[in-house]
Amino acid sequence: MRAFALTIVRLGPSGAYMIAALSLLSIGLLCNAPSSPLAWAVYTSMLPMTRTLILTLITASDLAFWGAALMLFVAAVVGGYLAVRPERYLRLHFIHAHAALVGSGLAVLEISRNSAGLASISFSQLPPVGWPVVDGSFAAFALFVLVLLACLSIHAAIIKNILGSSKK
User: Fold this and answer.
1) Per-residue model confidence as pLDDT tens digits over 133-168
2) 137 Cβ contact partners less than 8 Å away, ≥ 6 residues apart
3) 47-94 pLDDT tens trace
4) According to the 3-state scheme, what is the secondary structure of the chain?
5) How far apart are CA 139 and CA 49, in angstroms?
6) Which of 63, 61, 64, 65 is nearest to 23 (CA)?
7) Distance from C-alpha of 53 to C-alpha of 110, rounded to nearest angstrom
8) CA-CA distance, 94 to 59, in Å (whole number)?
9) Around 82, how many Cα atoms within 13 Å sit in the side-chain half-sphere?
10) 83-5-139 Cα angle (round to 5)
């Protein structure tokens, strides 16, 4: 049971990367189907957690935009492998998790601001999003805590590795 719980905790960074990738894909979905209620629901539920990323990449070229989405999906898959095999590639796991921690921390800071959306767009005409799992601030904070626990887990593994190698 402990190993299963630690694996779930180690999957936290992958969740952060996957949410960012889905957020970018929601923009593509919205561009292809602007009248779709599903496209708007996905976009408005993902926007608060990844607003900075979206605003940075929305003005980028198509190649940079889709390249970033692909890189985020690859980071999520690599994180899944690292979560299953925590004893291998400790440095890569450390960097992977801490980059996700910075991103999820920025998302929590972004959500804590009082703005409801982009300044140039009014969301008052949108239907309410009925996704209780993705509740902006709570979901972002829960993801931040999960990624923070993953980082602590990696720190513990590195300390254990250092102590184990010093005894030999």
Assistant:
1) 444 567 778 888 889 999 998 898 888 888 887 776
2) 48, 108, 111, 112
3) 666 666 666 666 667 778 788 888 889 999 988 888 888 778 888 888
4) CHHHHHHHHHCHHHHHHHHHHHHHHHHHHHHHCCCCHHHHHHHHHHHHHHHHHHHHHCCCCHHHHHHHHHHHHHHHHHHHHHHHCCCCCHHHHHHHHHHHHHHHHHHHHHHHCCCCCCCCCCCCCCCCCCCCCCCHHHHHHHHHHHHHHHHHHHHHHHHHHHHHHHCC
5) 8
6) 65
7) 11
8) 31
9) 27
10) 85
Asked whether 135 and 48 are in contact (CB, 8 A), the reply is: no
Q: What is the mean pLDDT of residues 20-44?
A: 82
CA-based R_g, the chain, Å: 18
**Predicted local distance difference test score (pLDDT) of residue 130:** 44
d(CA 102, CA 80): 19
> How far is CA 88 from each of CA 85, 92, 93, 143, rounded to the nearest angstrom?
6, 9, 8, 24
Nearest to 11 by CA among 154, 159, 155: 154
Spatial CB neighbours of 96, under 8 Å, sequence gap ≥ 6:
13, 75, 78, 79, 82
Q: What is the structure's pLDDT at 136?
A: 56
